Amino acid sequence: MSYPENIENLIPQRPPFVMVEKLLYADETKAESSFTITDGIVLTENGFFTEAGIIENIAQTSALQAGYIAFKSGEKVPQGMIGGIKNLEIHFLPKINDTINTSVSIEHEVMNAKIVKGSVYLNNELIAECEIKVFLV
Questions:
Q1: For the chain, how many structural domains are there in total?
Q2: In a domain, 110, yes or no
Q3: What is the dihedral of CA 81, 109, 103, 118, to 10 degrees?
Q4: Domain carrying residue 13
Q5: What are the E-state strand segments in the chain?
Q6: What is the pTM (predicted TM-score) of this model?
C-alpha cells in the first residue's frame, strides 16, 4: 500500500510543531508513523525529545490516521484536540537524531471522541505508552 509522501496534507499541524514524518501504515483502526527528532522542533530540551513531545507524537500519529482515512474518502482532514491522557509510562527519552516509530490503535470510538492506545519505540524497544482521548472536529 502506498501512502502520501507529504504528510502535511493529512494533519492540521505545521512546522515547527510537526511531530510525525512518515506514515508507515494506516487502516480504519490502526496507524504507524516514524519521526526523526531534530534540533529544530520545539519540544526538545537538553538534547532530548521531551515528555510533551512524546505525547504530541502519539496524538499526531492518531491525527495522521484520521487524516489519511479522510483523504482516502475525499473528505476534509479533521482538526483534533487531546481531551485526556491516561496510564502514561515513559521509560526513557529519545535523543536528537533518533528515529522513533509510533503505533496507535483505536480502542473505543463514540461520536467525535476516540480513545486511542499509543506506543512509541526506538530500535524496537518500547520507550513510552499511554491512552489518550482525542476529540475530532
A1: 1
A2: yes
A3: 60
A4: 7-136
A5: 22-26, 30-36, 44-45, 48-49, 80-90, 99-110, 113-122, 125-136
A6: 0.95
